[in-house]
Amino acid sequence: MKKAKTEQHAKEKLADSLLKEAENKLKEAVQTGDVTDINIAQTLLETAQPKRAEERETAEATNDMQKWVDKCKATLLEHFAKKSRTG
């Protein structure tokens, strides 16, 4: 699970970086009026935005799974603690 979280974090950083780069490129292209660069930046944004949304969904699913595992672990530990106290 830890490895999955590390990989997920790296993917999120990559998506954020790509999104930021696309936004900066678009800003510069609009300021200079370079239509080619505007189109390139728009394409980058169209690629980066869904990728970032996908990474957010995956992160949510990973967090939900971790909560479930933690809950199961706590329940199991509680069960064994009760069992060891009673006999």
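Above is the first protein from milestone M3; the second protein from the same milestone is given next.
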Amino acid sequence: MHKNSKLNELLNNSRFDEAASLLKDHLAKAVIIDPSDYKDESWPQYADAISRKISRDKGQEATIPFWEDLLKFFKKELEPTWEHLHKGHILFRLGIANLINDVSIAKKYLEKALDEDRLLEIERAKGKSIDIENKIRKYSAYVMLCIIERIKYVKEKQKFFQELLSPSFDAAIRGDKVDPDLVKEAVEYIVPQQGWEQILETRKELDLVFKLKLKTATISLTGAFLENILLSILYHHLNLSTAQGKNILEAELGKLLEEAIKRSIFPSDSIKTACRTINIFRNRLHPGNELTQKYKLTPRVAVTIKIFFDSVLVDWAKQISDKKSAQT
């Protein structure tokens, strides 16, 4: 797939079956792409490119047959030759794709993906004794299971996930960091100037604990960052004195979020749901909650949540800008 030129040509013309066949052909030949090399991350990137284009053209649910077919190809065509191959990425994507329809099915795929990650860590250890359960906490399947566990009390889960699974969320799962200047510009576009100083001071603290990979502090300050943004919009822009019946200057994140939803300050459901997710994680920081969780808060989980919110802020500003442009 030299420079992805052939793949890009097929995807640009929505020739998905041919794109999938091209990927499988290269996997079978194992010349450019080696399916047995767990360090080779190129084939998951190619598969994701196909899946993203299918999703944009036909919707998230339409990616399921693609990933199911790729899983079958690994089991039936590749593994008889190569023996066991790592299929964690495929199972993870099947888990994500099924979230909008059936959370229980999604969890089963994600748990299978985590089983694959366990096998991969055992292979990497080459006979050395390792803490497998600690090792797998860095994988995307673990992050997603952690998120699912924390939103178990949310009503209308399918709708929640349909709104959550945005390009911003996918970028966060991949670990695509957002340029800090873009985040600063987004804040200054979304928020009245009176709130900039306090918000950006909180942001500096968040960036510091993020670099240190302090999981609890990262989640707490991501929540505080959102809290400051909502307060500034409600207090300085809308001139509100209360939030859900409480003095707005004393209201916690949950009250501010409810008031923000009531006042329709979010430009889309995906932005609203992203902010609800931040609030849920902030609320679950109590040590008693953490003791009862199967999937613990880890540095990778905290990093994902923070990157997600960074990406959401940039998207938030863009959506507001696009709406203003459309009205002129």
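Note on the second protein: Residues 120 and 148 are 23 Å apart (CA to CA).
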